[in-house]
User: Fold Matrix metalloproteinase-2 from Hondaea fermentalgiana.
Amino acid sequence: MGSGLSVLTEGELKAHISKEDEQSLEVIREAWKTKDSFLVPQRQSEIVEFLQDILEEAVEESCPMQVSVRVIAALGLQKADSFSESDAYVRVSLQGNEATFTTKIINNCRSPVWDQTFTFDAPGARAGDTLTFDVFDSDFFSKDDDIGRTSVLIERRRRGINTESVFQQLLDGGRGVLVFNYALAAPPLQIRESKSFESLLQNCDAALDLVTQHDPARASGVRARISDKIQTMAAAIANDRVVTRQDIRTLSPEMTQRYLAAVERMMMPQVVRDGERTMEDLAASPELLEEHGETSTFFRLAGYHGWPEDFCAHRQENFPAWHRAYLVEYERELRKADRELGNDGHIALPYWDFGEYEVNGQVLPAAYRDLKGLPEGFFKMANLGRQVATRGFQLSSDEVARSKLERAEMAENLSASLEENNHWRHASCENTIGRPLEAPHNSAHMASGWPVTSLAYAAFHPLFYNIHCNVDRYYEKYLQLEPNSLEEFEAHQKMRVDSDTSVSNKFEEPLKPFKNPETDDFFSVHEIMSTPTHQLDYVFDALPQLRPALLSELPTLALFEKVDVALSLRDQEDNMKSFELHVFVVPARSQEGFQHPTDLPAEEWPRWASEHGCSYAGWATAFGGKGRSCKNCKETRPVNISVDISEQLRAIDETRHNVVLKTICVDEVGEAVPLEEIQQRFGENCIIPQPRVAGPLFASTDLILSKTTASASAEASDLGTSAETSQLQWYLHQFGFYPGKPDGDFGDQTEAAVKRFQQHVGIFADGIAGPITKRAMLMKRNDALPDTIFEMSESDTHEDFEDVPKFPAGSTVTWWLGPHPGYLNSAHLEEEVTAAINLWAEHAPLNFERVESRSAAKLVITWGDQAEQNEFKFDGRGGAIAQSSEHGIEFDINERWSLSLHQAKRYGRNTFKVLPVLLHELGHTLGLRTHSVDPSHVMGAYYVSNRIKLSSSEIARLNEMYAS
Assistant:
């Protein structure tokens, strides 16, 4: 018998299952058997997801797991041999595991690259165990020399694959930095795979058995939580208020008709719902139409989104919260209409999962195919000429819709939004460099057809609410993955207002016009985010699952930068516009003959492109705003819109430097216009910038750049090599190794600069920029300040790079800690900031004093959005993650941060630690201009997670600065 939940058919229950639990389990069992109800799928999904999450966490934190360790490289190892660099290798060991692994030996190298992976099997590792790396210098005639050691505490990771590199300083007398990563593989659970209620209980038994073997106390706590959930679930089943939202394409014919009947009733004015008039009566009488037209519940709700009301939450962090409140009110009215039709009101708003391209033979919901428009009598006479009344409903065919969904990479973009590690980056297109949830939502609108393509009129089609129901479903998944989202939202809004007093605090703004029926007050963001959905009377049958993390190349993009969708997508009549932006990748040599295939339907464009020597890349959406009359739109920043063109470059065998981009804009009614002609067609106030090709610093890390390859490429007129050389020169100039301006010519000066960089980081200095040199350039940096003063441009002087005190000796430096990410504990962060300041204060002839306002501070420490100035923003996480100036220090809010002195249970995924970066930036703020050549120093250029002590040479450098 297992020690978890028992199988009831065996006739007995474990001691941790009470009589109340037994009764509750019977209620759940009976509900499990019920078919065709809006109530039942939720019960199954909710209990399954709860059990999966709680047991998965318990197993991963209590039970040993397989650990795969990848030893990647080292930087700046100390020289252990008398006549050469070290012959380095690494020995890896795991606490409680007898096995050890040793890398190969890399001879005579200060920055060796091993890139080897080892796996620790049984007994495996638990969260909190120590993984240790010992670095040695191999000696042929004597005992191998210790170079240094570093270790890391195993952290529970939600994803099975970890691609983020860890940079750690070697300790125990060692000098240098080790680069590695690790991944955990927990014992597989079968909770979600359970085919019946009985097998579900059996699989829970097995998981709890496993936890009990290793942590009985933890198992007892899990049992108590399961017991509470069982009773809560049974009570929810008995409560007829909670309904289940499921994909509209999975509804039975009977439930589909019931749902459509309720929607149709919502479209009726109250006088028709009361039986006093018919819709035909209203349509036939101008007087009745004037009195009762546009008074239906459906009109009121539809008007909140676009026309005729003035509410707007697009491109702001409250986008998903506002729409959640919207759907709560819509669903409440839907259930009311169902009851008026003689039913029990157990009807839910279904979602349309536009990331699942086809379900039951349907792409768009078949339920709407017979819905040709809004009923006669719906509008007043004055508005019968509006497009929403005259055009009717013109949804895309399934063939067209599927083509659009696939070519917009809808499934990939939805899943990617769950990977965003800050709430504001997930929530809206305020995130200009990532993949927010709002972006695939925009494309779902455009893929659906009229009027869903129109911001003004989208909500007049019931599909609008199914789209947003799916958005809410993804948002609910994100809130479960990131439980600190509420605190993040609140803190991020404080940061916005602190940096720009003209914007409003979206956390504090009520979610007008939607009211909580329990209080009759407008919903607040806090209320809508902190209230479990079942307390809002709904749950989902299933939440989206995270896709496996895959190792993949960084994308190359067609990037439409700073598109002012809120204010600058207007036609000649000042109507708001929205566009699909379809991108073609054309070899530069063929651009003169390119003709936009606007005479063909969009689904034929990929075939046409392949026949004409170019490639169709896909599309993204510029979803328009309401213009200057909208307060929210006036606060909205321009957005970036992108299409991944990586596959298309491979398809035509070109580099990003040898192509041009061509764009066709398709508006909300399906008119296709080349981007170059958009103002000619729609007027000067319709502005979409031409896209540019954007991507990582180097198009290829494998392409070797040298004087030899430069000569060969010049003979072949290879633009790609010249452009890559310009990128290389930009980097070398930016960080102080190259005095000239980028010109694409790999000559003697560039070769010398490459050698200087290689010497600086400990790579063999051959003047050739190959894979190892390029990867060294792409290591995560603390900031974008120069590394060295080997060479300067003509406009620079030596004094520009000398250490000069920012604050006079003996002065008092007042400092202020500004708003910070909500997932960081305030008290712990303050302790860490104080510790960093004290480390420098011990050796600087300065007094430091904390003050309570920005205006009183000489040194401001805060967070801000550095996406615009981050030259490495397309090189993945990191790049330059902070910046300092005479005014203070700013951490990049786009990154996820964690603390060193206090280990929280979970900071989120792929974090940077505040303390080592703050120590580094404080050095710059005090006056240390350039970076240390030693990567183990606090003032080293590259991010190292455990580099939190000042070296003797840095203390001497500080003293020398003040002495001079």
